[in-house]
Amino acid sequence: MKLGVKVAEAGLVVGTWGNLSYRVLKDDAVVITPSGLEYHRITTRDMVLVDMNGEVLEGERKPSTELPLHLAIYRARPDVLSVIHIHSPYASALAVVQKPIPPILEDAAAMIGGPVPVTEYAAPGSRHLADSVAGALEKVNAVLLANHGVVGVGQTPEEAFQVCQLVERAAQVYILASAVAAPIILAEEEVARLRKSYLAAYGSTSRIEGKRSVPTDIKRGG
């Protein structure tokens, strides 16, 4: 799975941790990474297709233990077609101290849509975690999971991946800048303007209309 390898090579996950999924609109189903398999070993045949209730439709492996989290996000956000859960170091550092990432960088503000909030701690794979994350993503495209990691979403797997990269970069810059002085946070009005500009330039409905089947990168069965 090429995208999974990119996520691992970017240093956003370690070993088998983290998970990726994609919503297949035409089937009202979700393709998700399997549980317990390193990204460089995952092939398209290892991916698991499940319905919106979590029942396996295709695939021989067990779906990720964070499947409830992915499904909760898709139910809460009809515009989201891809979810990526990572454990990147700088963002996880802020998750450990349960500190949100304010909008300090224009590119992150444009793609994320506001500050990156932090959920309260909940056990991995639990319904509590799933519901908490889905609620936190109501108006933004990324969230920190307390003492755990990060979730980024998008209308394509590539966009969700970029959101995760921007969260990690924003977290790194925020930590470094805080060692010098109090970071200057972008005004709410400017964040709204940046988000509107991004959606106008890159958020056309063609991104949804053109992605109603499984992308070749994660297509099941070959």
Short note summarizing the structure:
The protein has 222 residues and is an alpha+beta fold. The chain has one domain: Class II aldolase/adducin N-terminal domain (L-fuculose-1-phosphate Aldolase).
Structure characterization notes:
This protein has 222 residues and is an alpha+beta fold. It has one domain (2-214): Class II aldolase/adducin N-terminal domain (L-fuculose-1-phosphate Aldolase, 3-Layer(aba) Sandwich), CATH 3.40.225. It has eight helices and eight strands. The protein has helices at residues 2-9, 67-76, 89-96, 106-112, 127-136, 157-178, 188-202, 206-209, and strands at 19-24, 29-32, 48-51, 56-58, 82-86, 118-119, 142-145, 149-154. It has an eight-stranded mixed β-sheet. Strand 1 (19-24) and strand 2 form a beta hairpin. Helix 3 (89-96) packs across helix 6 and helix 4 crosses helix 6 (157-178). The longest helix has 22 residues, at 157-178. The model is unreliable at 204-222 (pLDDT under 50).
